């Protein structure tokens, strides 16, 4: 299975915080930078997202801005 | 000036391709992973985005998914 | 591999139109409704998206609105 | 009134869950597939979204990915 | 019909530029600020978007950032 | 520093409501229209967003729809 989203950044989960319907997941990328994802608490449960696990942050290219 | 978007990933522009109204920018992150941004050609001109320049990829946390 | 995006709608590609960097893909869902996706031409090539193929439309829940 | 968003999928609300500022709405599409929307609790109140009602899920084409 | 998107900003179309699949629409808001929308060329045709017409810019609240 | 996001609308914060991980910020634009942003509570804290302060609502052009 291949997804059209162009961005897939490998990392390790540094923290997961769930509150009500939403969850905030911090991912430390290989290379040391950190990405924060806001997803549903339902997806955290379904995927079994937990601290220390390896996963990818996935982002559609049209959602990325640049700043210089 | 501070922006609410939680994700700011430092990198270097590897390529810029413009076609009509849209542009595709590839950014090599410090650490080696690559992020692709689709922005308007107007923003490429306004910011002077060009190969080899350092810049940040900026992403709102609600736009980030995870996959395991 | 499991993706946090909550929405995955199975369908068949009805048309693919590519112009420059972008592509428009029409997917007829099982059940008959139609979903249009705007993705990069690069992803169309990489995934080998073509008319008549079966695939899923994938959408993050925070991107869905409702109207009544 | 016509909205530029290309995707409008007719369905029936299967569940509405509200917690604090956010709400999760499950819509069963005509055809049987299910779409989950995360919207504000304020919009749930304003629109009177409730189980069993018919409504449309609305999605901008640039937010749709494909997977094969 | 009511849409869950929280933001609806009334304005007048200042320019429409179409290229291939995509279009860029500049809207001068009542009050003088300008909003740029990137939508599909298909939606420009379907809605009959043209310079000088009055319309609303519509934005889901989860897509808005703030900067101070 | 310049950001690729095309839309920057100047205004004043009318209200900030935080609940758990998320926050809803209402911004009265110069000109009188109102924009609602849903951002993380973490960003509200980091930026020191509070009622009465001046700030900009920032929106990527691909996130803006039009309705006529």
Walk me through this protein's architecture.
- Chain A is mostly beta strands and 68 residues long.
- The first copy, chain A, has a domain of 46 residues.
- Helix content of chain A is 10%, strand content 54%.
- Chain A has a four-stranded antiparallel beta sheet with strand order 3-2-1-4.
- In chain A, β2 and β3 form a beta hairpin.
- Chain A is globular and about 35 Å long.
- Chain A starts with 6 loop residues before the first strand and ends with a strand.
- The model of chain A has no long low-confidence stretch (mean pLDDT 97).
- Chains in contact: A-B, A-C, A-D, A-F, B-C, B-E, B-F, C-D, C-E, D-E, D-F, E-F.
- Chains A and B meet through β1, β2, β3, β4 and β5 of A and β1, β2, β3, β4 and β5 of B.
